[in-house]
Amino acid sequence: MTGADEPATGVTVDATTPAVPWDAARAWLAQDPDPETRDELTAVIAAAESGDAAAAADLVDRFGTRLAFGTAGLRGRLGAGSNRMNRVLVTQAAAGLAAYLLEKAGPDAPPVVVIGYDGRRGSARFARDSAEIFAGAGLRAILLPRLLPTPVLAFAVRHLGADAGVMVTASHNPPDDNGYKVYLGGADDGSQIVPPADGEIAAHIQRVADAGDISALPRSEQYETADDAVVEAYVAATATVAPAPAGANGMRWVYTAMHGVGTETMLRILDAAGYPHPVPVAEQAEPDGRFPTVAFPNPEEPGAMDLALETARANDAEFILANDPDADRLAVAIPDAATEGGWLRLTGNQIGLLLGWRAARRAAEGGVADGASLACSLVSSPALQVVAERYGLDFHATLTGFKWISRAPGLVFGFEEALGYLVNPETVKDKDGISAAIAILGLAAEAREQGRTLGDLLADFDAEFGSFASGQVSVRVDDLAVIGRITTALRSAPPTRIGDAAVVSFEDLAAPVSGPPLGDILRLWLEGDARILVRPSGTEPKLKLYLDVRGDSADDAASRLAALETGVRDLLAAID
Fold first, then answer.
1. Could you say which of 76, 110, 185, 368 has the lowest number of CB atoms within 10 Å?
2. pLDDT for 154-196, tens place per residue?
3. What is the Cα–Cα distance from 439 to 442, expressed in whole angstroms?
4. How many domains in the chain?
5. 82, 123, 130, 171: which is the annotated catalytic residue?
């Protein structure tokens, strides 16, 4: 047998070539319970042994590192290996999480964990593996009754009084990805994990992996399958977000689940809240983990909403609502004669500001302004702070992600620009694209009663708070080292001008002048009340640059944003 550090026959290596991890690959193959990934890995090993350099490099990629468990849990490409999402890795993760929960548990009762899953490839099997491992470890494991949106799992953690929850999903990632998202109950109140819990869970997972063969782990099929009552409770709670006013009668709108799991739950809530059913994008209405009509199942991506736009034009719709595949995000599009194609896709900031304004009004009208707050991530529009101050609410700018937004003190509403909104924190402590859709329907119906539209509400916001505009420049890479080279260049030689605007301040939030590190984020303030934030994506191979400007009018803000984007692209080109 070839040693761990020895090349296979015929594979040429030099001093810079990573050693092919033969022992790791064969040990993984021996314990893999999945015939599909066993066959996949067997073929790669055989090719590498025969001298195929590409296959040898593939083994290094699969086993040279381990898919990291962090504050987003696990997320990665499906396939065999420690650097892929598969049944071995998921089993190790479940066993590690079980050990963590048992370590933290009191003596009175076993920890309770609830498991949900979406329609992606492998999700149902990963969920059942997790339930069997949790039950085998002595936990009370509750599997949701069928594939469901991520917000239903987040709701179920609190509703069932669980100690933890697991959602098997990769949200809006490419079709070949899957993931493992962890929530904690108790003092965490159903929010996603944050440090130090993520590190402690990761350490337990590593101990399981180091112990060897997963077949030695105890399993049990004595887990529970929840009945539909938990879904009915979510439906009832979400319907109260915005019961339909009279203006909803006859409302024509289009909805797409983007081949995800949103349709069934959305329709049930519409019935409970009294809204008319939408015209569906039929090709995308049912769950399909292949995502056959979109190259990238994220409503932010170019082309992802093309079928929804076609459907809206054919049916003279008043607006479009789109969920991503696990229904925790919401996109909105409205008719706009000035936009090519006649439809405008609203940015996450525009949607978030409308919903934030709605929440602020309701808080003030309900007499709960004292101690109540609005929150958004650092990279989201600074206009939310203006709204909060106008209504006497507190405001919190948090690190990126709802694991942080959901923990803001006194929260009544939170959002992030990546189409994520938390409109009912008393029910779900995470972003929820379905409850956000109900809130938008309420706004649209109320405006409709007055002969107005969502577009008119955006104009009202500008008139009330000023004209803010936001944009984003994304650099998608094949090699993550490219991202590091760009951020290192910016840190070592901060720009003094971007386009025609002078940079008035440059902050490295990974090493701030005062206070604790806030993350791998660079923040630049430019003359003329403009801002740029630079950060690597936490879930995709991207560097994201977030642009925000404030203008004297909507046209002025749009012009300033366009000039800033040009300046940013020129800056990136110069670095490259």
1. 368
2. 999 999 999 999 999 999 999 999 999 999 999 999 999 999 9
3. 5
4. 4
5. 171
